[in-house]
Amino acid sequence: MKTKIDIGIDEKSRIEIANGLSRLLADTYTLYLKTHNFHWNVTGPMFQTLHTMFEGQYNELALAVDEVAERIRALGVKAPGTYTEFSRLSSIKETQGDLNAQQMIAELVAGQEAVVRTARSIFPVVDESNDQPTADLLTRRMEAHEKTAWMLRSMLE
């Protein structure tokens, strides 16, 4: 038996918000995997700095994945949780081949910025639905990704 959800957001809007959050979850998980890959495989004179930095970033992303998925569930929708679903939903593509440290940083800047764009794209329905918990989540995620993109970008200059 499915219990009716009555949190002040109509079902159509809840589903639309959850679908947007599912794209955000897929982007976040894909970026997590890419960052973890680069943590393992970075080489060169900046190895120690980047290895440590990437570890901090993928740990932060791991926590974010859980928070986004739990918000989807709170809205009464099943969170995607397979590589197939993430691949279909994500705007971030997997990296192929061996990259040098500078290329890895550039890939991660692009990934961080993609997550921000995805989060920002959900705001119209969130605002229209008066969904403050999701708005708060999106704002915190955008702030984290914009800051990380800035820090990574500064390493390319």
UniProtKB/TrEMBL annotation:
Gene3D superfamilies the record matches: 1.20.1260.10
GO molecular function: ferric iron binding; oxidoreductase activity, acting on metal ions
Cross-referenced SUPFAM superfamilies: Ferritin-like
Pfam families linked to this entry: Ferritin
InterPro entries xref list: DPS_DNA-bd, DPS_DNA-bd_CS, Ferritin-like, Ferritin-like_SF, Ferritin_DPS_dom
Residue ranges of every copy of the Ferritin/DPS domain listed in the record: 20-157
UniProt superkingdom: Bacteria
PANTHER family referenced in this protein's UniProt entry, alphabetically: DNA PROTECTION DURING STARVATION PROTEIN (PTHR42932:SF3), GENERAL STRESS PROTEIN 20U (PTHR42932)
Family affiliation: Belongs to the Dps family.
Record-given protein name: DNA starvation/stationary phase protection protein
